Amino acid sequence: MTYKIRFGTDGWRGKIAEDYTFDNVRRCTQGFANYLKTIYSAEQLQQGVVVGGDRRFGAEDFTAAVAEVLAANDIPVHFAGAGTPTPVISYSVVERGAVGAVNITASHNPPSDNGFKVRDPNGGAIAPAGLKQIEAAIPDSVEEVSRLDFDDAVEQGLVRPFDPKPAYIEQIRRLIDLQPLREAGLKIVVDNMWGNGSGWLSELLAGGSTQVIEVHAERNPIFPEMSRPEPIPPNVDAGLAVGAREGADAVCIMDGDADRCGFGDENGHFIDQLRVYGLLGMYFLDIRGERGPIVKTLSTTSMLEKLGERFGVPVYQTGVGFKYVAPKMMEVDALIGGEESGGYAFRNHVPERDGILANLFLLDLMVRTGLKPTQLLDRLFELVGGPHYYERIDTRLESNEFKEEAKARLDSAMPESIAGLRVTGKVTVDGYKFELEDGGWLLIRFSGTEPLIRVYCETLHADKVQAILADGRRLAGLD
What we know:
Structural class: alpha/beta
């Protein structure tokens, strides 16, 4: 039976050598080429497609396989190759005037996986309707795939290798003044999680008194000291320990493809992604004095609504994934867009997560205010009515039958209270979100990239976090 390629929250991902094979990557690329031919003229397609990837197993060969198929379809390839951060690939689309991009990456998935992401001419995620079109255009057999040898394609000028770094660095310099960061005398630990972000912050912050110490900077596709390159505990624990041992002012963390941001304080303690998004919102609205809409997925912090109300900017909520966030950012000219997993995008850049830039903005927040990360959190909490507490539990699904039973159970669920807090509403945009009287929430949803059910919560009551999660697991039939 032909393996059916499905696009989840952000592209297609599979287990290397089982689902994720060269034949299936080529089929997927042919589907993308077929899709592009339906929406662009032959002349427009000559603007080309950017192709790059991460540092996972076989990345060089998989990116070359993509280039060969696109070239055979007479679509020129701007070839960045493996080891290119996702935000750099996305910016290259805009910088080179391309019609889109293919990015070979499984982002924060386990080392056994790889993935296939596509981007539009803005460098952002393609909307769900477009992904469905691509899925439908994927041929059932590799025999229906066109292919031109990589070296021949280079010789014919259809594959054009280039270095995307200089243009991206110039863009960073337009968005943030790096000199004060270089001269601030900070000691920064950077945990690259063995991924694409290696070397970037060291280069951008070089030339002053600020010291950058990089860890997990080598290429190692099995991701030692972590189960996966996802910037959350316990994967970040080793890097945070280095920050504490070195007496660092902050720990900057990036996931495997450098599109997600994690952050640690001056004590080597992790600052969760919801609090980081709150800090970024405060940075733009309160410190830089900028104004504009905020876009957030329903799985991230309600602190943004409170900041939006305080500073007079609208806040829009979307489903989970940048395939929802990116189009909304473009629609409303958002100041910032982000999600619970640590992905944040910014105005005047590309509607794509950028872990490099997000970490630089957090450092700039420290330098402009002269405050340590713990002090910045205190300032944020003063603006939003106190500390907000967040946690998430992921559980592997037992079977598709259990998934359907859980969905039926959650469809009808409408409890009066959760952990003693009155339920004020239920949102089913993406999963099942129960809004609580303290402004917090419980969310239960199924992962779009892995066979997982996720239970999340945010609350102003630290002593109720575990009770909220337990009630969520019971609602889903997990306990």
